[in-house]
Amino acid sequence: METENTNTASDTQTAEHPSSSQGKVKKKTFLLGVIAALVLAGVLFYFFTLGSPSRQVLAQVNGEKITVEEFNKEVEKVDLPLRDMLREEPLQYLEGLIMKRIVLQEAKNQGITPPPKTYKDADKNPSSPDDHLIAELMKKQFPAPPVVTQQEIQAFYSMFKDRMEGKPLDQVAPAIEQVIRQGKQQEALESYLATLRKNASVEIDQIRLSKIAAKPPESNTDEDFKKALQSGKPVLVDFGANSCVPCRELRPVLKEVGKEYSGKASVLVIDVYKYQNLAQDYKVALIPTLVFFDSKGKEVFRHLGVLDKEKIVAKLKEIGMES
């Protein structure tokens, strides 16, 4: 009996009270909840401040950041189709933004400030503060136009005399002087900007830049071209390139015609840089060049430059496309 009483007492001392056990569980659950909340807050903070695609840094210019968001806003100001072309080759446009940032920094370093706004500004369309800073810096850097000597004018006239339509030197001298002066101004500006760029600290995230680059539109292949000429239907071939603005303006029209008259005619786009052999075979000197082939694969018409939809359709019908 004593042994039983001893065991019972021992069990009573080591056993936990139900309410105490529940309290520990609640405390543990609370701590886990706090940790989870902190982790979630950290993730949200990173995404909305540091990790958000729009806030990711594309480049740093003397410590100043150019983000994806800034890049996209600037690109949106450009008209189509050039906007799409810049998105496909973003480095070219980013370099322009970098150069603009460097020039603005130089203007501020030289103490140039935007003009104060007044009530009169509401009645007109003043230039932006950035444009003002750049203009003032250029005035300060190039206070006077470059000098053009009579010897330079004479040398220019002698070199290009065959293009002067028989006009004497004294008659064309003012125009020659202006051409030479503009050339000198351009050369001086390019040299100045090159020096600023060389002395600037610029870091470009090439990996991130490649990720935001849009995929350029695909063109047809030489095999597509051969099959189309053997299809027994009229064919329109646009010899062009993705880097050509008029070519890109033409693409939506060609796509619409190709879709609308699918099965009745073939509309192809051949990139002259990818398929130089075809461009040479068909003597393509300027782009875009539209070449029309009849149902036998024979060239029957060509047009240099952009052509509207109505004229394209009319020409296809003229060479045998069914209505």
Figure out the total of helices.
13
Share of residues in strands: 5-15%
Could you say which structural class the secondary elements and strand pairing correspond to? alpha+beta
CATH class bucket of the largest domain: Mainly Alpha
Q: In which range does the helix fraction lie?
A: 55-70%
Mean pLDDT: 87
Number of domains: 2
The CATH topology of the largest domain turns out to be: Triger factor/SurA peptide-binding fold
Oligomer: single chain
SSE order in H/E notation?
HHEEHHHHHHEHHEHEHEEH
* Rg calculated over all Cα atoms: 35 Å
Count all strands and give the number: 7
Poorly predicted runs are 1-15, 43-50
User: Architecture of the largest domain, according to CATH?
Assistant: Orthogonal Bundle
Shape descriptor reads: flat
C-alpha termini separation = 113 Å
Describe the main β-sheet briefly.
4 strands, mixed
Strand order of the largest sheet: 5-4-6-7
CATH superfamily of the largest domain: Porin chaperone SurA, peptide-binding domain
